[in-house]
């Protein structure tokens, strides 16, 4: 059969753009449909604008810390519209770059909502396109649970475009997006409370990291409350009145819900094409990203597996390689994906948590831990500490994981991840000369194990 395209991609986000460009580079005829914004969540309402806000929110502390270094900085009023609009201008620049990249790679861009009509046909606006292979890369969307007053809350999507900066904010949620936004609002000067319904936030991260961050966050002025949940929200003028399940109330002029995300699979025609979905609406795939329909694939957040930009990008690379080269059957190694949380101080992590390592190799583990005051704060006097943990498999000395909380933890752990993916041993870490004076040198000078596990 003669198709219009070799590959039709639904969604020009992190994964979709990468798969399209690489496949077109291999000579495939490729089109991508995008309904909302080029570059997807990461570029428009995710990683990139968030990191810009994180930078913005840290100046407050930097101005204070500057004093001990001889600088008298009189911080002027924080100007929210300036930060917001500068951010938006930068994002628009990136949207343009994405547009040019697709055009430069000879990928046809169809702007509009795409849906499947059958397993080889996609409809965008009023046009129909056929393709040999179809890739679903439509990402995810924030989930706000059902409760009375849910219309009075915002999600991370809206937080990037607030018309005015709030004085009093409640962030609900215990995942990385919630903790990052609590840090952003507090750093930019809002009185900030973070509520989480469970006993400890950051589920899935190493227990020591979670406990350490629990101690650090309140030092940034965030009122952290665990085992607290919202029953309903009412309006009193512009004020949101939060009625909690324990009978207490809180007030705020902004409530941000960061309580998870769900896959973007509604109104995609997936059922019509016979594509099987999981309980959370995610597209079900095999190890090589193929759905139950032979020519339809899915990658990234829509599969509800690891929701990170570099993962979606790498999966896009795998798809292009598997479909259009003889380097077939590529998949990602999901065991050693490094990641960061841009709370303040940052978290950087690679490899299994201690609890997961115990399940895999219990009795064969050496745990090294270190906690210290960052050098910068010896003068500033700020009460902030850094934490590092290394997990080593005793029988072969292989370093399985590094977990860190501290300034630039993401930058540091990215480098360490190369060593861990390469299978470096503790002896090789020890044989590496440190860079002095840095926090990272601690990772090559961890001499005494803290405990065995
Ligand atoms: C606040 C926030 C902060 C984040 N921070 C980080 C971070 O620091 N680091 C990190 O690695 N990850 C981060 N992420 C996660 C990251 O953004 C996602 O994992 C990544 O964007 C997933 O890429 P994707 O290609 O699967 O989907 P997306 O990037 O979401 O792209 C999907 C695209 O499909 C389009 N689309 C949907 N339906 C249709 C349709 N029917 N027709 C046409 N187009 C459609 C959407 O408009 C979107 O552009 C963050 C996410 C959020 C929300």
Number of strands: 22
Structural class determined from secondary elements:
alpha/beta
Distance between the termini: 59 Å
Ligand set: flavin-adenine dinucleotide
DSSP helix fraction: 25-40%
Radius of gyration, Cα only, in angstroms? 24 Å
Strand content: 15-25%
Mean pLDDT: 97
Structure description:
By secondary structure, the chain is α/β, with parallel strands linked by helices. The chain has helices spanning 14-25, 40-45, 47-66, 80-104, 156-159, 176-187, 207-216, 309-324, 354-361, 376-380, 409-421, 426-431, and strands at 5-10, 30-34, 108-111, 114-118, 121-124, 127-136, 140-142, 168-172, 191-196, 223-226, 230-236, 239-244, 249-252, 254-257, 261-263, 296-298, 339-341, 347-350, 365-372, 386-393, 398-405, 451-452. Strands 1, 2, 3, 4, 5, 6 and 16 form a seven-stranded mixed β-sheet that branches. Helix 7 (207-216) links the parallel strand 9 and strand 10 (223-226). Helix 3 (47-66) crosses helix 6 (176-187). The model has no long low-confidence stretch (mean pLDDT 97). Flavin-adenine dinucleotide is lined by residues 10-16, 33-37, 40-42, 45-47, 50, 113-114, 137-139, 156, 177, 264, 268, 300-302, 307-310, 312.
């Amino acid at each position: 059969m003669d198709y219009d395209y070799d590959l039709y991609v639904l969604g020009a986000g992190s994964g979709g753009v990468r798969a399209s460009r690489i496949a077109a580079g291999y000579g495939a005829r490729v089109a991508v449909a995008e309904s909302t914004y080029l570059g997807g969540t990461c570029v428009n309402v995710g990683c990139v604008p968030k990191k810009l806000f994180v930078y913005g929110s840290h100046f407050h502390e930097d101005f204070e810390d500057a004093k001990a270094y001889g600088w008298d900085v009189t911080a002027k009023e924080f100007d929210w519209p300036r930060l917001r609009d500068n951010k938006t201008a930068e994002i628009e620049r990136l949207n343009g770059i994405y547009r040019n990249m697709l055009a430069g790679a000879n990928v046809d861009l169809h702007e509009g909502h795409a849906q499947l009509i059958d397993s080889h046909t996609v409809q965008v606006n009023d046009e129909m396109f056929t393709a040999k292979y179809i890739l679903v890369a439509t990402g995810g969307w924030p989930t706000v649970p059902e409760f009375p007053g849910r219309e009075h809350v915002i999600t991370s999507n809206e937080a990037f475009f607030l018309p005015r900066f709030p004085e009093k904010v409640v962030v609900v949620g215990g995942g990385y997006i919630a903790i990052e936004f609590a840090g952003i609002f507090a750093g930019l000067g809002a009185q900030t409370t973070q509520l989480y319904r469970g006993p400890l936030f950051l589920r899935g991260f190493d227990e020591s990291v979670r406990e350490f961050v629990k101690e650090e966050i309140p030092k940034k002025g965030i009122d952290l409350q665990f085992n607290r949940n919202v029953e309903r929200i009412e309006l009193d003028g512009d004020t949101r009145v939060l009625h909690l399940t324990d009978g207490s109330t809180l007030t705020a002029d902004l409530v941000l819900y960061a309580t998870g995300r769900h896959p973007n699979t509604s109104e995609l025609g997936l059922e019509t094409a016979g594509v099987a979905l999981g309980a959370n609406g995610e597209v079900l795939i095999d190890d090589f990203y193929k759905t139950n329909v032979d020519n339809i694939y899915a990658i990234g957040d829509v599969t509800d597996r690891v929701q990170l930009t570099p993962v979606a990008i790498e999966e896009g690379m795998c798809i292009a390689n598997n479909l259009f080269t003889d380097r077939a059957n590529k998949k990602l190694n999901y065991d050693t994906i490094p990641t960061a949380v841009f709370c303040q101080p940052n978290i950087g992590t690679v490899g299994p948590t201690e609890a997961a390592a115990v399940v895999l190799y219990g009795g064969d583990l050496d745990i090294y831990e270190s906690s210290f005051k960052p050098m910068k704060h010896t003068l500033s006097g700020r009460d902030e500490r850094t934490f590092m943990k290394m997990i080593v498999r005793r029988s072969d000395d292989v370093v399985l994981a590094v977990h860190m909380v501290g300034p630039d933890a993401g930058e540091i752990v990215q480098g360490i991840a190369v060593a861990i993916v390469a299978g470096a041993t503790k002896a090789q870490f020890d044989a590496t000369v440190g860079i002095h004076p840095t926090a990272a040198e601690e990772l090559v000078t961890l001499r005494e194990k803290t405990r065995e596990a």
